[in-house]
Amino acid sequence: MVRELGKTDSVFNQFLSEIRDVQIQQDRMRFRRNLERMGEIFAYEISKEMPFKQKDVVTPLGIAHMHVMKQQPLLATILRAGIPLHQGMLNFFDNADNAFVSAYRKYDADEDFVIKLEYVSSPSTKSRILIVSDPMLATGGSLKAAIKGLLEKGMPKEIHIVSVLASNEGIEFLKKTFSKYKLKIWTGAIDDELTAKAYIVPGLGDAGDLAYGKKED
Length: 217
Hints:
With 217 residues, the protein is α/β, with parallel strands linked by helices. The chain has a single domain, classed as Rossmann fold (3-Layer(aba) Sandwich). The protein is built from six helices and twelve strands.
């Protein structure tokens, strides 16, 4: 149910170390590009578990018996931080349908927050392989809101959650919330701690701000 790519040594860990590094983070273009490259690796790994079919391909010299994907997945992401990660997966699943969700933390004067869901732009999710990306899986609140919004468009065949970093608390929350669904969580690394404001530690900071600049709360 949970796949942690960083447990296996590969170039993925190089990208992960760079997006965590407070000095390298100053280069926004590199931060976005690393998220994109990690999205490509996630897409490759997920593709290994997708259904394939045989297809005869005509070459200049004959017929090649190939295995190709039976269907493209439906790629969904949470704006704005998820865009580079989403683009990386779209680079590989280049004919996929796409969905976009606006969900964010709304803080009050006591620094408590609720998840606000503004809108969902999505085709039908019925019988689709749904891949939902968000760089940070902290409490799981934003992903819960996003997935519930997407479920209103139909019942997917499978749900894959992709996060560069996750907390144990967020993972357990989503497993419990969506226990009735065929769910798999893909992450780069699992960090143990959440701060009082529900930020992952050691984490990497605010992925949206690092990719696109600070926003006014």
